[in-house]
Amino acid sequence: MTLIDNEARHHSRGRGRRPDAKNQKIGQLPFAQPQLTLEPSRIISDDQIETIHQRALDVLEEIGMDVLNKEAISLYAKAGAKVDGDRVRIGRDIVEEALKTPPSEFTFHARNPAHNIQIGGKWIAFAPVGGPPNCSDTDRGRRPGTLEDNANFIRLSQFFNCIHTAGGGSVDALDVHASVRHLHIMRNKVRLSDKILYTISTGRARLFDGMEIARMARGLTPEQFLKEPSCYTVINTNSPLKLDDPMGMGIIEMARHNQVVVCTPFTLAGAMAPVTIAGAIVEQNAEALAGLTLSQLANPGAPFVYGGFTSNVDMKSGAPAFGTPEYMKACIMGGQMARRYKLPYRTSNTNAANMVDAQAAYESVFSLWGAIMGGGNLIQHAAGWLEGGLVASYEKFALDADLLQMVMEFLKPLDFSEDALGLDAMREVGPGGHFFGAEHTQRRYLSAFYAPIISDWRNFAQWEASGSPQAWQKANEVWKRALAEYQQPPLDPAIAEEIDLFVARREKEGGEKTDF
Question: Is 3.20.20.480 the CATH classification of the domain at 105-410+497-507?
């Protein structure tokens, strides 16, 4: 874990930036997991929550899900579901029984125990952008992702203390063959980060290779691995109302190994879901409950996270829209449903901007606020998401790190000690004075207020004299400094060698077969 340079942090606490700021280390908050200290928002009533629940059960019971994984069909059938070919109609009694067993909160184990996190309750964890095929920065522009870009985003995820996971492959490594790409990306994660691990489930070999590397990285026996959630995967249903073969397999096998399933329907209102937000949430809820049921049929008590990714489309172009008022509403409604089931809740920080501009910033703030006040426990794509998820942006990552730190600072409980109430300071200053020189201020000024990474608080003349830097330019400087300051976390040489041998063997065996 990168330690904060106290002197640099203290210097950064003043108003504005000192002239030698470029030579100072990035001032950031210490690694900590925030909690929602406010009451989560509610925009629908308890009766409306129950209505969504009942309509979702109607969907599963009457319309059903198309399930393309044969073992998943068998598990549903054994529980009493009605099966007609690929169509599986899941009775409400089966779902209600499955809702009794998953944990409402659990410990998620990292390679470094100091980076363990809690999932559920009021806990919040931020994960970086995951999955785009492209990346961008202002120096080299938009381009296909490479293994080196992938490694850089893992380094950034490790460096910034506001990020709690190593990422899910923040940008895909398109310069590595798809059959073995997952091996190199997973090895990158355990070499370059000691935070929470993500493994992909788009193929059986990919999933099991990822779980095995996660197990080896923590030095666990197979028996210990079954007892300690050490990696997670995101399962996206094929909205509307379909669960494909790899995703069904992913739910079953992750649950059997007691690892974390984050089931997230991708329900875009007007495209893959009804055009109304209420209807889209009914569909989201039905698909999430189908995933929950399958996980608990495979292994009652397996950790499961209720995911929501409902937004709308641009009805002029058909393109996905993010950071919209509808997205915020869906975030909050999804959180209300997750709390109804006493399940941890996954949501996301999103935007549809094509560059790091005002749109990228305000849509992310909207998304982030909906995610936080919706009671999100695991916030995916918290840093670096751009272009509706098609691009992982270096500058956006730096900008989002500042936003996440601001959220964390906002959520800190207020100090209501006698000293914080400031009566002695008011007695010292009296009417008509100022508090700059007060003893109370002098004791506190270094850490009194949040010091931003990107925001510039200098007056116009000072800002103009420094070249009138814009936020995207400072973000470009910040991510480069972060990579320069990054320190690779230690990894036991014997474990590193074991993982290298495993990757070499699996490469020789062909990894995940992709060429038919």
Answer: yes
